[in-house]
Every structure is written in C-alpha cells, then in structure tokens.
Amino acid sequence: MSIEFLRVLAKHPAPATLTDPHDVDNLLVLRAAGLVAALTFKPDAGGREVGRFLALTPDGRSALGMATDGSNRGAQAISQLQKLPQ
C-alpha cells in the first residue's frame, strides 16, 4: 500500500494534514523510507497522532517513476485527502 499511498500524496497539493490512523501509519512508513518529508504531532495531550505531509523527496519522485503497476488501489485515499483542510 505504501507506493499506492505515495501516488495519492503526489497528486494532492502539499501541505496536507492526515488524521486517519491508517494514513498516518502509511505516512510514517514513507518518511522512514526517505520518500516524503513529513511531520507528526499530537494536537491535544493524549489525543490521536496527526500527520502533516510536506513534500515528496527526490527519492520519492524516483520511486514513483519506477513504480509501473498502474493500480488504482489508492482511489479511496484520494477521496479522503480531498476532504482535508489545506
């Protein structure tokens, strides 16, 4: 799912705030791989972790260039990202 999620993020204007725990987890995987610049934080003490996608890294852009499976599994995530405030 991470490459598909990377495709979703690449199509969405940055910065983007991610509140869904699954999306935040995917963002953390991509950040750990060096494919995105992102932050995570907890806006409220004891609250849920929120992710902030800032940009694709050069490695992230390269990974998208090499991924050629053409799947559309990230379509649901796109609709979720479109609802997020900028």
Spatially, the strands of the biggest sheet line up as 1-3-2
User: Quick check: average pLDDT?
Assistant: 81
> What is the helical fraction, as a range of percent?
40-55%
Count helical runs: 4
First-last Cα distance? 24 Å
| CATH architecture verdict | Orthogonal Bundle
* Secondary structural class: alpha+beta
Report the count of strand segments: 3
How many domains comprise the coordinates?
1
Subunit arrangement of the protein: single chain
How would you characterize the largest beta sheet?
Answer: 3 strands, antiparallel
In angstroms, what is the radius of gyration?
Answer: 12 Å
Q: How large is the share of residues in beta strands?
A: 15-25%
Low-confidence stretches: 71-80
CATH class: Mainly Alpha
CATH topology: Arc Repressor Mutant, subunit A
Overall 3D shape: elongated
| SSE ordering | HEHEEHH
Explained architecture:
The protein is α+β, with helices and mostly antiparallel strands and 86 residues long. The protein has one domain: Orthogonal Bundle (Arc Repressor Mutant, subunit A). It is built from four helices and three strands. The protein has helices spanning 2-11, 21-32, 58-66, 75-82; strands at 16-18, 36-41, 50-56. Strands 1-3-2 form a three-stranded antiparallel beta sheet. A hairpin with an 8-residue loop joins strand 2 and strand 3. The longest helix has 12 residues, at 21-32. The radius of gyration is 12 Å and the shape is elongated. Mean pLDDT is 81; it is low at 71-80.
